[in-house]
Amino acid sequence: RSHLRQLISLSMRDPSAPSRLPGLPRVCARLRTAVGFATLVACGLAAGSDELGRPTFRDFPPGRNNIGFLSQAVGQDGAGYIYIASQWIFFHYDGTAWLRIPYPPEAAGPRKFACTADGTLYVGGAGMIGFLRRTGAGAEFVSLADRLPPTTLGCEDIHDALAVGDTVYFADEEKILRWHGGRFTVIPCPTPPRTRGARLFKVGDAVYAAVPGRGLCRLVDERLEEVSTAAVLRDRVIVLLERGAGDALVALTATHGFVQI
């Protein structure tokens, strides 16, 4: 306030008189900052008060949102609603709150999501395999367990899911399940115990499976065709597969970085 009085007093002096306010540059800088902030606030109010102060990035700390401390997957359906697999709980987010989606009591929770071309969200997990009928607050889990062909594991331990067009693939430690046209096809794909089965990837229009103990395979006409049996792919977890230069593929392994195939 004293600086402001000195500025007013100074403005009434003879312009040719020398300045006696050593802190003038600092005061002017503060005034410019204040004016800039006021302009920013005014622009924000003009744009819409609902957005004022709302962060671009929102976080959902465990406990405060009842999400839990282990979230295994996040998915989005064709309508834009967000879904999360949190331990044994299945949530959907409507933009304001996280709401639970019930599922069969014999299941232990979702692990993976896959969205088909028509926007339907498919779900695979521990003792659950199916899709969501409707979206948002009206979303209902529909189980496809009763449509499974007889297998040893059934849907007890689904660890991966991938959608390509209107076809969905689910993988566990004994097989890959292909859902298309209202029926399942079983593609045998045994893997060592506790490896969580094949990991599925889409590159272009092709579907690939990184099979522990075997390497990288491509799904062709409901069978697996080997692409590479290199030790770095056979014995390492592949977390990403992308198209490289020309016809090459580039894989990202969990422990050995990028590998060109």
Mean pLDDT value: 79
Q: Output the radius of gyration.
A: 29 Å
Helix share bin:
10-25%
What strand order characterises the main sheet? 1-2-3-4
Give the total of beta strands.
19
Number of helices: 3
Oligomer: single chain
Low-confidence stretches: 3-24, 37-49
Name the helix and strand elements from N-terminus to C-terminus, one letter apiece: HHEEEEEEEEEEEEEEEEHEEE
Strand content: 35-45%
> Gap between N and C termini, in Å?
70 Å
How is the main sheet built?
4 strands, antiparallel
Class derived from helix and strand content: mainly beta
General shape: globular
What's the arrangement of secondary structure elements?
Layout: H1 2-11, H2 24-47, E1 71-76, E2 82-86, E3 89-93, E4 98-100, E5 109-115, E6 121-126, E7 129-133, E8 140-143, E9 160-164, E10 167-171, E11 175-180, E12 183-188, E13 199-203, E14 206-211, E15 215-220, E16 223-228, H3 231-234, E17 238-243, E18 249-253, E19 257-260
